[in-house]
Write a structure and sequence with these properties.
- The structure is a single chain.
- The chain is α/β, with parallel strands linked by helices.
- It has 2 domains: 186 residues, 3-Layer(aba) Sandwich (Isopropylmalate Dehydrogenase), CATH 3.40.718.10; 140 residues, Isopropylmalate Dehydrogenase, CATH 3.40.718.10.
- Helix content is 38%, strand content 14%.
- It has 12 helices and 11 strands.
- The strands form 2 sheets. The protein has an 8-stranded mixed beta sheet with strand order 4-11-10-5-6-9-7-8.
- The longest helix has 19 residues.
């Protein structure tokens, strides 16, 4: 559910109200029932899910319902909280995702085993207020799965972007960039594109500085760090090129000249994806051994509880997770998920 005081409950409820989407999988909501009920009431939608207390033995038994909510009743006062970052919402969202990660990692064929995880937005500030050190889902999942390499990738119909660095201050980006730090998103992004059915991905790598450093006149990261990472990828059989100026390369990718763009920092990659593919893109954590996707936006506290949230990005994230889960069971060409249940 993400932060229950944000738009997470609303976009989950609206997304799963789509009967076509419901037909593709069985859905388990890790969250609280009260915010879902309130969102449904505001939207004029009849509740369609089956509620089970999260601390009940019932969740350990098979439940033949298309949508189930594991209701964490210890967070029953969520409706009284202000629509802003707070430690109570941070503690709730952290508890939800921790249990989902555990159920993703379970090897036992139990009713709690899940094939993929889709996370509604959290508030990083709320996590900090609740005493957690993780800056976001991506870093937490990498730690819990003991994954040494992980990246944040955004997938949309016209543009796919993977980030070399994630949640760090802009002034610190150049200090975090190493040859390995740039090679990993190229390599993992290549594997992700293949999983999406792109047999020979064409990957464009952004420069860090204006004009990709202008031959060293505007910075040496391109020649010192980025170009060696591209060369390493080429030696590994990956079709990667660059470093390219970031102010032009995304347009080339949208025109179909590249399948994936590797951005050096958070906003370099997210501004074009959100501008060009608003509501159509999904965040996909690549690298860890579990499938995790999410919508491409934040908690939107300013519109939470007003029935104004758009669930299209959440639906895209759900559909991507279903496709990836099916692919993980039957490697090869990636089906579109139509008419299949997982």
């Amino acid at each position: 559910m993400g932060d229950p005081t944000g738009i997470g409950p609303e976009i989950i409820m609206k997304a799963l109200a789509d009967e076509d989407l419901q037909s593709l999988a069985r859905f388990v909501i890790y969250g609280a029932n009260a915010p879902l009920m309130l969102a449904a009431d505001h939207a004029g939608i009849e509740p369609f899910w089956y509620r089970v207390p999260a601390d009940s033995d019932r969740i350990e038994s098979p439940i033949d319902e298309p949508v189930i909510v594991h209701d964490y009743q210890e967070f029953g006062d969520l409706l009284r909280l202000p629509r802003e970052p707070n430690r109570y919402g941070g503690a709730a969202s952290k508890r939800f995702v921790e249990d989902a990660i555990s159920d993703c990692l379970s090897d036992a064929p139990t009713p709690r085993r899940i094939d993929a995880m889709v996370t509604a937005p959290i508030s990083k500030q709320a996590w900090r207020l609740a005493g957690f050190k993780w800056p976001g889902h991506t870093e937490l999942i990498a730690h819990r799965t003991r994954c040494r390499r992980s990246c944040m990738m955004f997938e949309a119909p016209r543009l796919k972007v993977v980030l070399a660095t994630i949640h760090i201050p802009l002034m610190d980006v150049r200090n975090h960039l190493t040859i390995g730090q740039v090679f990993d998103p190229i390599d993992l992004g290549h594997q992700a594109c293949v999983a999406l059915g792109i047999e020979s991905p064409r990957i464009a790598v952004c420069g860090l500085n204006p004009h990709a450093g202008e031959g060293g006149l505007l910075g040496d990261e391109e020649t010192r760090v980025i170009q060696p990472a591209i060369d390493m990828a080429n030696r590994a059989g990956i079709n990667a090129s660059g470093p390219w100026p970031a102010d032009t390369i995304f347009s080339d990718a949208v025109r179909g000249n590249y399948d994936l763009v590797v951005a050096m920092y958070h906003d370099q990659g997210l501004i074009p994806i959100k501008l060009m593919e608003q509501g159509k893109s999904s965040n996909w954590t690549i690298g860890p051994p579990i499938i995790r996707t999410s919508p491409d936006h934040g908690t939107a506290f300013d519109i939470a509880g007003r029935n104004r949230a758009d669930a299209s990005s959440m639906q895209s994230a759900l559909r991507l997770a279903i496709r990836l889960a099916i692919h993980s069971r039957t490697p090869g060409s990636l089906p579109d998920g139509s008419g299949q249940r997982i």
